[in-house]
Each structure stands twice: as C-alpha cells, then as structure tokens.
Amino acid sequence: MSTVSPGFTGRRRSGDDLPPGQYLTHDFPVLSAGPTPHIQPEHWEFTVANEAGETIRWDWKAFTSLPSEKITKDLHCVTRWSKLGTEWRGVSLDVLLADVETAADFVMVHSYGGYTTNLPLEDLLDGQAWVAYEYDGEPLHPEHGGPARLLVPHLYLWKSAKWVRGMILSDTEDLGFWETAGYHEYGDPWKEQRYAGD
Amino acid sequence: MERTAIRRRLTWQVGTVTEVRDETASARTVVLEVPDWPGHLPGQHLDVRLTAEDGYRASRSYSIASAWTGTTIELTVEQVPDGEVSPYLVDVLKVGDPLEVRGPVGGWFVWKPEQEGPIQLIGGGSGVVPLMAMLRAHAANESTQQARLLYSVRKPASVIYVHDLKEVAASEDVEITFAYTREAPPGETRPPARVDAELLKSVTFPPEDQPTVYVCGPTPFVETVADLLVEAGHDPARVRTERFGPTGGPR
Ligand SMILES: Cc1cc2nc3c(=O)[nH]c(=O)nc-3n(C[C@H](O)[C@H](O)[C@H](O)COP(=O)(O)OP(=O)(O)OC[C@H]3O[C@@H](n4cnc5c(N)ncnc54)[C@H](O)[C@@H]3O)c2cc1C
After folding, report:
1. Contact (Cβ atoms closer than 8 angstroms) between residue A35 and residue B213
2. CA-CA distances (angstroms) from residue B163 to A49, B132, B142?
3. Cβ-based neighbours of A90, under 8 Å, separated by 6 or more
4. Which of A176, B90, B106, B206 could staple A116 via S-S, CB 3.0–4.6 A?
5. Ligand 1, from B93, B243, B244: best to mutate by most atoms within 8 Å of Cβ?
6. pLDDT tens track, chain B, 251 positions
7. Smallest CA–CA separation between B83 and chain A, in Å?
C-alpha cells in the first residue's frame, strides 16, 4: 500500500548508514518514563542472579575495578533519532557474566526507579553489551543513566536500561516495562521492530 | 512502576483530514477520520507517516489530543522551524488529504478514568496536548476526581486550546494555572518566569494528597519540573513523564 502525501517532499536528513525510519541528530535527547533517579555511586550496586537464584554482587568500587573498555557505537532510539559514533567506557557483560552458571535463555534487567526491560541472553554476550559508566570521557550524567547504564547498541535504546541495578536470568521470556506497554519484545532497529507484532 | 497490558499488532491506517484549526500562529489542530480507529486512552500517541512522490518516507510521533472514542481523532502540532514533518502538518496538509497513522501507542503516560486520586497535570508548550486529552476525558466521563493543570507557556498568544481550556476550567473539579515565561498578560500578578519550586508549591496538589502527576513538554522543562516534584516529596513512582524533542544542546 502506498499513500502519497500531497505536497510532501521531505528534508531527507536520514542517511544510508541509518536504520530505516531513523534520522540523524547531533544532540542527545533524553527519554524516560519518570523523574531522573539520582543515585550516589557509594549507594550503587549491581547484581546478577541466575535462574537458581544464586546472586553475584558488585559495589561501585568492585565494579569500577573490573577491566573496562572504550566503546564507540551508534545509537538508535525508537522515537526515530539516531546518534552516530558515541563514546563510552564500560564493563563488558562478558566480564560480568563470566562466573555465572546458567543455562537460561532470557534476562530481565532491573533499574533504580523500577524500570525493567527484557533481552535474550545471547544478545548480551560476545562483545555486544556493556554496563557503561562514562560518556565522552566524563562520568555518566544522571539524565543519561548515571552512575551506570546498560548499553546494547544493536537494539533500540529502550533496551539499554538507564540507572541499571541488576539482571535476573530466566528460562522463560517475561516482558519489561515498555514491552508490556506495546513495544516490540526484541527491538531490532534494522528490522524496524518498534511495536508489538512488527 | 505498575504494569500495563496493551499488546496488539499495530498496522498503518489511512485517515482523511476533515478539518484543520489554527490554535496559535505556529500550532494547528488536525482532525482526522480514521475508519478503523480502535479507540485510545487519553495520553497515548500515534505515529504519522508521510510519503513523497518518489517513495521517500518520514515518520514522527504525535500525542492524541481528543479523548472521545469513535473514529474521529485530533492531533495538535507545533511547528518546529526547519523541521521535516511538523511544517508539513501545520502548513501544507489540507482538508480532504489522506494521512497515514499507526496507533495508539504507549500505556504508561495515560489517565484511566477509574484511577483513584487527584490528577496533577503539568505541561510546557505543546506538552499540553496529551494533558488536554486527559482533561477532555475527565469532562466526558463526568469524573469528580480533582484535577489541576499548570501550563507553562511563553506568552498569552502561545496558549493552545484557549477556548477549550476555559470550558473545562468552568467545572468545579478542574483548576487551571498559567505560568508565563516571557510575557504575562495585563493584570497577571506573577512576573514572567519559569516554573519553580515556589509556584509548584502554591498551585499544585501537595504530596500528601497523593496525586498522580503527569509532566509533559520539552526535555529541559520535564527534567526540571520532575526533579522539583521529587524534592518537594512526591513519590517518583507517581510522577509520569513524557519528553518531546531534543535536549537543546549536546551533553
Ligand atoms: C511521544 C511523543 C509525542 C509527541 N507529541 C507531540 C504533539 O502532540 N505535538 C507536537 O507538536 N509534537 C509532538 N512530539 C514531537 C514530534 O514528534 C516531532 O519531534 C516534532 O513535530 C518535530 O518534528 P519535525 O520533523 O518537524 O522536526 P525534525 O525534522 O525532526 O527536527 C528539526 C530540528 O528541530 C529540532 N527539534 C525536533 N523536535 C523539536 C521540538 N519538539 N522542539 C524543538 N526543536 C525540535 C531537531 O533537533 C532538529 O534540529 C511528540 C514526540 C514524542 C516522542
């Protein structure tokens, strides 16, 4: 089906290197469902629980002592902006999950403030995901998820939970906050998986 | 955060423009007839998709301004200078034109008439659009929940929905306060200024009343107001936000 919009020509600020339906932005928009939580690093902790309930815990000091990486990635938000070449520092999920015993397929990510998002475990492994705590060489600003946020750049940005506090591994796929509110359960920008059923 | 259950496959639908209404010099309401519109909750949005002759497409999200169910929906669009989609919706689109939409979307920034407790709405600029849908739903449902709107706007001429707001404000359950940021009308006692803690304290429901608070507008506005509300003692879990547009600068 094609419905032409009479008189629309477009400004065409989208480029070939962007997923379909995205346009390029140079600022860094903020989208979240509630007020920005302000969590002091000394009160922050991150936990990973496997499907048996065994939990590994890092406080800020232990977390920032883990080997970290510089990450340069493009970001794609479901509200259609993309931002290219953003620079972060964070700890790879390969490091955080190295000692976790699991046969689970799914992960529910939990944030300070109550936000949740679900992902397949395999999308967090093999250099695809980080818990990031620096942006552009500076400590991550609370608006953008500081002190630390998940970064899964190959999926729409709502999967990259801000103010992240932990993950629970599970054999079954449950839906997170936006996924329950009508957004896609997986969220691949290149396939335009914006809403449930896309 | 409470869970909502709205999952349904969304398909593009072609609506027809049946009316356009200027709200201000730069904002316009577009009335659409969408034959298969499934209905929506006040606060939800939809996606609009424009297609050029050569197949090029651009989409953006717009809040639904109307509350009533049925197949007629209204959008109100503020023109962003240099924008791709909003200038088309405000200046070019005319009665009789087709418009592709997909929705409704969003199950969090919504007001449900059966919800308990007072409703505090706080809007900046075009952020008043989904809040207007809530006020309209409040009136349509003859809800007796107390509702207050604090509407931050540059100057009197920038007020969207002047007449409709007067109408809803006539209800004894609804109170409306304007906060002018650049230019106040004659007789206004508060000099032009941004929304601050003092204003919030004097015109919005206090935390003890346990209102559900809806804050919508440009990102810096929403950030500031939501932070002030939490500082004033509102439970963050009862403060819902919707942010339109960019930060206004790289961070
Ligand atoms: C959930 C949701 C609901 C929305 N509801 C409404 C609504 O009810 N009414 C409405 O008018 N808009 C609404 N918006 C904003 C709307 O989706 C578009 O972003 C806006 O119309 C600009 O689109 P554009 O294509 O004209 O500008 P673009 O071509 O996207 O942008 C042009 C330039 O303007 C900047 N810009 C983009 N958006 C804004 C903005 N809002 N303010 C200032 N500068 C901006 C961009 O960074 C860019 O530099 C909503 C957004 C979201 C995410």
Report:
1. no
2. 55, 12, 19
3. A68, A69, A71, A130, A131, A132, A133, A134, A148, A151
4. A176
5. B244
6. 444 445 567 899 999 999 999 999 999 999 999 999 999 999 999 999 999 999 999 999 999 999 977 899 999 999 998 899 999 999 999 999 999 999 999 888 999 999 999 999 999 999 999 999 999 999 999 999 999 999 999 999 999 999 999 999 999 999 999 999 999 999 998 999 999 999 999 999 999 999 999 999 988 899 899 999 999 999 999 999 998 865 433 22
7. 8
Gap between the Cα atoms of A35 and B241, Å rounded: 7
Rounded Cα distance, B222 and A34, in Å: 9
Residue A17: partners with Cβ closer than 8 Å, 6 or more residues away = A74, A84
Q: How far apart are CA B63 and CA B129, in angstroms?
A: 6
Residues B219, A141: Cα–Cα separation, whole Å:
15
Q: Which two tokens stand for residue A66?
A: 């883990």
| Cα A72–chain centre separation | 14
Chain B CB contacts of A149 below 8 Å:
none
Written as one letter, the residue type at A134 is E
Residue ranges lining ligand 1, Cβ < 6 Å: A 25, 79; B 45, 60-63, 76-78, 80, 82-86, 126, 129, 218, 242, 244-246
